[in-house]
Amino acid sequence: xxxxxxIREYYxxxxxxxxxxxxxxxxxTNSNVRANLAKDIKAxxxxxxxxxxxxxxxxxxxxxxxxxxxxxxxxxxxEWVDMLTRAAEKETDSNxxxxxxxEANKLMKEVTK
Length: 113
What we know:
Layout: H1 3-13, H2 19-26, H3 30-43, E1 47-48, E2 54-55, H4 57-90, H5 94-112
Antiparallel strand pairs: 1-2
Helix pairs in contact: 1-2, 2-3, 4-5
Protein name: Phage protein
Organism: Streptococcus phage phiARI0468-2
């Protein structure tokens, strides 16, 4: 885990923590904590709230949404592979069977990525 990730994790659990507190826990300097926070705010990973605390929920919600999207896409591809496999079993034309199997193999490679 990188230093920036450790800082994010700590602020996720303790949004009102001071720079010195985070620096001590993470094992870095106050200026590194400030620099990482500034980069995260500029990149949209973090929001500074009115009470001077930091909110990393946009960053973590985005990561979770991406994971769910990839899982959903993989589920759909698996369904397509099943459909193509069933169609290939019923098909008698060898050219059509070859195309269906080729497409199923292509989809399976995408699922494993």
